[in-house]
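REQUEST FORM: STRUCTURE PREDICTION
Request ID: SP-0412
Submitted by: Lab K.M.
Chain count: 1
Length (residues): 177
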Amino acid sequence: MLAAGAAATLLGAAVIAPVTLSGTAAQAAPEPSAEIFQQFVASDIPDTSIPAESFEIERLPDPEPPPKPAAAAQPQAASRPLYTGGGAPAEWMAAAGIAQSDWGYVDYIASKESGWNPNATNSSSGACGVIQALPCSKVPGNGYDPVDNLRWANGYATGRYGSWAQAYDFWLANHWW
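STATUS: Completed
RESULT:
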């Protein structure tokens, strides 16, 4: 069997077959790993390992925390008066000149952006009003006046997206507009 395996190896094929020894041959055979160790590991090589206790471990200082961003300045619109005029979304949309056929789209976006709160201000960006105009200063008049905010938003929706329906579709896909 050994000769067949050696011949197969010389010819480029690998033959793997289990080998079992029985009887006195099993008792007399040395453990293969011990035999390989004795043949290939010189016993006269000195131990060159270094004990771990001889290393001095240097503790590095904790990294500096990243600098905190400067506190965001209050949005420019904060100096504008907040809205106290009352009214309802349908009245505001009509006064802003938004077609009644678009009110459902406007209602969805305004509900998501501000909950129809004319005095809503995003603390991180400064966006303001029912539609969250950004920056608030781009709204002619007062960004907190819902009619001014919606009038500006009507031009924005049709100018940027083509229609309120397309602005709505964009909002659904991106959760902002």
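NOTES: Residues 4-11, 73-77 have pLDDT under 50 and may be disordered.
Reviewed by: T.R.
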